[in-house]
Amino acid sequence: MPDIELFVQSLANGVSVGAIYGLIALGFVLVYKSTEVVNFALGDLLMFSAFAGWSLSVALGWPIWLAVLAAIFLTSLLSGIINEAVVSRIIGQPQFAHILLTLGIAFTLRGLILLIWGADQRSLDSLAPDTLLEVAGITLRAERVQIILITLVLVIALQFFFRKTRFGLALQALGENQMAAYLMAIPVRRAISGIWMLSGAIAAIAGLMLAPLLLVDTNLWLVMVKGLIVAVMGSFHSVPGALGAGILVGVIEQLAGVYLDAEYRDLVVYASFFAILAVFPKGLFGGQSAKKV
Amino acid sequence: MMKLRVAGLKQYFGGLKAVDTVSLDAKQSEILAIIGPNGAGKTTVINAITGLRKPTAGTVWLGDKTITGLAANRIAELGIARTFQNIELFEHASVLDNIQLGFYRHRKVTLCAELFNLPSARAEAVNARLAAEKILHYLDLVSWRDKAVSGLSYGIRKQVELGRALCSAPSFLILDEPASGLTREETLDLGYFLRDLAKNRGIGILMIEHDMGLVSRVADHVIAMNEGRILAKGSAPEVQSNADVIECYLGSEMV
Amino acid sequence: MYFDFKTSYNDDIRLIRRPLSGLFYAIAFGTALFSPLVISEFYITESSAIFVLGIIIIGYMISAGMAGLVGLGHAAFVGVGAYTHAILLGAGVPFLISIFSAIAVCALLGVMLAVISLRLSGLYLAISTLIFALAVEHILGSWETLTGGYEGILVPDPIIFGTSFASSINYYYLTLSALVSVIILAANLMRSLSGRALIGLRDSEQAAASLGINVLKTKSVAFALSGAVTGFGGALMSHQIFFITPEAFNMMLSLQIVLAAVIGGLGSITGALIGAVVIGWMPELISQIKALLPVSIRYQPGPDLVIYGAVLIGFVLFEPLGLYGRWKKIENWLLTFPLDRKATFAKTRTYMKSERV
């Protein structure tokens, strides 16, 4: 394979994996911006969506598109329930409490998934046909192209939602000042649940696109770590920030896997994470630093 | 007698000239007050002096030593203590612990001595406690000694913050709005403490204050600032009668 | 009612400030000292494991509880401590030199973590420590020439000056003395100015700097001390697992350390010890619970995770100050009886306060 083609292909792979990381990061960012909670259970919600998708499409034999939609809906619902039942009870407590609480939820979810589905590996089909596409002389798998397209559409829709719609603007206000939003008659509680459902749905979409690339098993939640790295690099801030940082991490990871040893892939990602934080302690898209006195 | 001198201090944030060429002299045993409307750049000046932010240009001397741009902790070690506009206390520690931390700049023992609780470390712990007790008595905070700071009233918290700064036995004390939020009685007490600290204990005080009653009672010199520049300098009556200052506070049509 | 009566400042600096607590410590220590004569071998081994956990959790408490540097990756220090010790022992280095080298390496690792996370705080710090631990685990796994990779290495028996501490009763006394030394060092730290400086760092960095505290140096000291103590625990722990692999020091261990700190209550040595006891007994407890479950799921890893998760959720929701905090409330009630006021520990309704800076 000529060098340039290998490079472009790994670039495309990097972008598609990075788009998924970006989506996971987006799941973190949405909840963080409105409530300053980092939902460490997001990886397990993502894993749940993959298992649910498998159960519906393989075990129950539903058509794949219906199974995918249903899995997204179920994950979103689960995410909303988690917020209503548990997380919303400790609003106003220090960040540390939220980290621990969502970690606890993560453990519980992971344990339940293990109980229900067991530790076996399964494979899940993708929505896209298993064919190769020829783009400008470079062959790409349809699956990869589909990931990039879906992510793009989703990101544009979210941008429109937050910039133009009433509810989206209300959510933005919530992120700025919860008390003020409450006084402005924004239904804070319901809005936060909405955000959690949205975040869960995005994680589910990421999970259902990721699962066909890997396998559906109980290590799938580990991809959350990459999502966290991306969210931090993108400063926990914006939709484009998360996507940009996601693609950066995806590309770094793929290129390191191809041109260095595959064993060092994750290490290179970790190293670049610390390098970027050393230079930009607030992430690549961070605003001003230092507390005002 | 040591002086704290600031010459040609500039602090720009991008295009915004928060402080533009400010010079001032503070002497030990004297109280210098900076007045001015919100956004005049007063806090920015003292943040630059105490090393919280490196100034764009200008020099700060303590005695004949240049301290411009040193780290905040280095400047504190040299004997400049400060308080904050919005109270920066160690919320989850007791009043005593807060005030004792003021003693930190006099710490001489090594970490190792502290870990093994050697006699030197024990002696220093007693010294810190003694210093803190003196402050507690001086500021009449004894009854609050073991209370956690987070539950105290605003006035007491201000006192504790002042006490913490005093416990470092500074040669200069920089106060950011010491009387804001205090009751009339508390403000009167504060005025007494400030006079006593300067006149009887030789501490130089640089304070930002809006309460003109307090300023005209205690300050030896007053500087009025607006939009990052110095409008007027002099004694309190001089500054208060300055036409620019009146215009700045009341608007020109009133003159 | 109970009154504290003090006559000198030294009374306040003493470790044992009340005659009653002196008695309590004496009983606890005496029990620890003599119980191996009566309890069975199984409990002796379990107790040693709890002592070692106690050391590790005190190490975590120094950075997380005192300095407020909440990390999610302390397994890295346990792992590096264990590996350094095992490798040096394997190379024929005497026990004491080996264990102090492990402590030094972990202190250095702590400084390294402080340097790379120098300007980070809060959430970013928590996440970067998590990533740091993953990176360390990865390196332990792939540096095969030194660590034997994922195959693991054997840990030689602890032999100090010709005496073997491999038997469970000898090892019990080894870990007990290690724990007591660590407790005393940590207590000394907590009553010193440096210890207060750590607390200052936690509550307001700006104010700490304005008092002459070098924020970056103090952060490094916090991580170095925390790393050193945790690494010490890790080195001792290696003798319990005999054969160490990188997986022994994965994210699960990090989270168990955090869980223990939360159960016990952050910020006090007693809390750390309570946490160690609970976490140490958790596997036992879980196996008891699992015995009640239907056979089909009795041997799965699922229930463990659910129980760990539920405990964590329960503590955050209902007992955020940990068991030690609960005990403090009871103690306060006893000491002030009958003048106890419900409002002392009452919570007010809160809104989200931004911790973004």
What does this structure look like?
The complex is a heterotrimer of chains A (293), B (255) and C (357). Helix content of chain A is 70%, strand content 3%. Chain A has 293 residues and is mostly helical. Chain A has one domain: Orthogonal Bundle (ABC transporter involved in vitamin B12 uptake, BtuC). A two-stranded antiparallel sheet of chain A has the order 1-2. In chain A, helix 2 (42-59) packs parallel to helix 4 and helix 10 (239-259) packs across helix 11. Chain A starts with a helix and ends in a 14-residue tail after the last helix. Chain B is α/β, with parallel strands linked by helices. Chain B has two domains: 1-79 and 171-255, Rossmann fold (3-Layer(aba) Sandwich); 93-169, no CATH class. Chain B has a six-stranded mixed β-sheet with strand order 6-7-8-3-9-10, with helices on both faces. Chain B has a four-stranded antiparallel β-sheet with strand order 2-1-4-5, with helices on one face. Chain C is an all-alpha fold and 357 residues long. Chain C is 70% helix and 2% strand. Chain C has 16 helices and four strands. Chain C has helices at 9-13, 19-34, 41-66, 75-90, 95-116, 122-142, 144-147, 168-190, 193-203, 205-210, 215-241, 251-264, 269-291, 295-298, 302-318, 322-336, and strands spanning 153-154, 159-160, 163-164, 243-244. Chain C has a two-stranded antiparallel sheet. A two-stranded antiparallel sheet of chain C has the order 2-3. Chain C is globular and about 60 Å long.
Nutshell version of this structure?
Chain C: It is a multi-pass membrane protein. Chain B has 255 residues and is α/β, with parallel strands linked by helices.
Mean pLDDT, all residues of chain A: 84
Shape annotation of chain C: globular
> What's the quaternary structure here?
heterotrimer
Helix content of chain A: over 70%
Largest inter-chain contact set: A-C, 55 and 54 residues
By CATH, the topology of chain C is ABC transporter involved in vitamin B12 uptake, BtuC
Proportion of residues in helical segments of chain C:
over 70%
Unreliable spans of chain C are: 347-353
Low-confidence stretches of chain A: none
What is the number of domains of chain C?
A: 1
Structural class of chain C: mainly alpha
Q: What is the average per-residue confidence, as pLDDT of chain C, rounded to a whole number?
A: 84
The fraction of residues in strands of chain C falls at: under 5%
Protein name (chain B): Arginine transport ATP-binding protein ArtM
Domain ABC transporter (chain B): 4-252
Keywords (chain B): ATP-binding, Nucleotide-binding, Transport
Organism (chain B): Pseudovibrio axinellae
